[in-house]
Amino acid sequence: MDWLRRRNRTHEDSLSKEIQNYLHRETQQNLNAGMAPSETRLAALRKLGPVARVMEETHEAAAGRVWLCLEMIWQDVHHGWRMFAKNPGFTLAALLSIALGAGANVALFSAADALLLRPLPVPRPGEIMTVGFDFNAGDFSYMRSSYPNYVDLRDRNRSFSGLLAHYAFSSMGFAADPAANAHGLQMTIRENRIFTALATVLTLLAVAVLIVACANVAGLLTSRAPLRAREIALRLAIGARGEVRRAIFLHPARLRRLLCHSA
Amino acid sequence: MSTGLNRDRVEFLQGTLDMLILRTLLFGPAHGHAIAHAIEHGSEEVLQVEHGSLYPALHRLVRQGLLSAKDGLSENNRKAKFYSLTAKGRKHLLSETSKWDRLSQAISRIMRPTQG
């Protein structure tokens, strides 16, 4: 964004020259008209009006609305960076909070994504079944199998092309003909949903972590409000109403952007 | 401001100021100071604006492509920014002038019906 500043400075220099030129001419003209030399410059300034306001309004008129908007955003961002630089402790705490929250989220969601949203990396994921004996523990039913049962099933069944036992959630996965069932034993065959429960838990956890992180930063920002009261009062007093409002709403957005840059 | 004719002081509408600037530049390029005095003198000092309010108008007209600005040397060899009408500005002035004519005629017909 350096080009923006350079462009503005060039414009400002040129405009300043133009105004100075006006004042010079007007002063000269007053002198020629016989005004007391000590009065000429002041009279010229009065004729022009407040120089700072003229510069400001001319700049706005020359820039146009789109450009002004860009400039405003740039000012806000710039101000935000300065505030970050002035309060490194706060910045670090806020960044760390969001970083941890976002990081935990990414980890949890990528786990949920791999487990739940993507099909298993096998040719026909629909034919993978979970087989086991149903156990009811209150509201919660799960499937499991003893090792001898597993060995028997693995060696003797004709319904599945293969079988493996795994520890997590005490179930067994198979690759086989989905229409088959296991005769003789009181077994349950289900579609492979062992990870569904896990993924749901993970997602809920991720949401909770994100909420905690956000609340944390909100708390940080709120705790700083009394510290900033003086600054905000001063800015309001000199007429920066819109700027202050934007600063309050944009500050969190800027934190996030800073995080993206540092990541 | 200086002549104290505050009662006669006409508050400029933005469009009116634009039109007057364009009209002033019909005679050739001029810098801000000259334009301000041309408007003031041309109206026999009735139309008085803070000359500073001229500059936003000038820069807006440049942005709109109705004027072009160029650095040059003035009569006393001093650098100055000269404004001149563009083709678009000339066309705009023409349409604004006819609009103004119709408006002022309509108003004067109402205000002074006997002299119609």
DSSP, total strands of chain B:
2
Uncertain segments of chain A: 169-173, 175-185
Oligomer: heterodimer
Number of strands of chain A: 5
Largest interface: A-B, 28 and 23 residues
What string, H for helix and E for strand, traces the elements of chain B in order? Answer: HHHEEH
Q: What is the helical fraction of chain A, as a range of percent?
A: 55-70%
Compute the CA-based radius of gyration of chain B: 16 Å
List keywords for this structure.
heterodimer; A: 263 residues; alpha+beta; 9 helices; B: 116 residues; two-stranded antiparallel sheet; 4 helices; globular; disordered N terminus
Tell me what the structure shows.
The complex is a heterodimer of chains A (263) and B (116). Chain A is α+β, with helices and mostly antiparallel strands. Helix content of chain A is 70%, strand content 11%. In chain A, a hairpin with a 2-residue loop joins strand 1 (128-137) and strand 2. In chain A, helix 1 packs across helix 3. The longest helix of chain A is centred in the N-terminal third of the chain and has 31 residues, at 2-32. The radius of gyration of chain A is 36 Å and the shape is rod-shaped. The model of chain A is unreliable at 169-173 and 175-185 (pLDDT under 50). Chain B is of the alpha+beta class. A two-stranded antiparallel sheet of chain B has the order 1-2. In chain B, strand 1 and strand 2 (79-85) form a beta hairpin. In chain B, helix 1 (14-24) crosses helix 3. The relative contact order of chain B is 0.16.
Q: Could you give a short description of this structure?
A:
The complex is a heterodimer of chains A (263) and B (116). By secondary structure, chain A is of the alpha+beta class.
Task: Provide the fold topology.
The complex is a heterodimer of chains A (263) and B (116).
Chain A: H1 2-32, H2 37-48, H3 51-63, H4 65-86, H5 88-117, E1 128-137, E2 140-144, H6 147-156, E3 160-165, E4 172-176, E5 188-191, H7 194-223, H8 225-237, H9 241-262
Antiparallel strand pairs in A: 1-2, 1-4, 1-5, 3-4
Chain B: H1 14-24, H2 32-42, H3 54-63, E1 67-73, E2 79-85, H4 87-111
Helix pairs in contact in B: 1-3
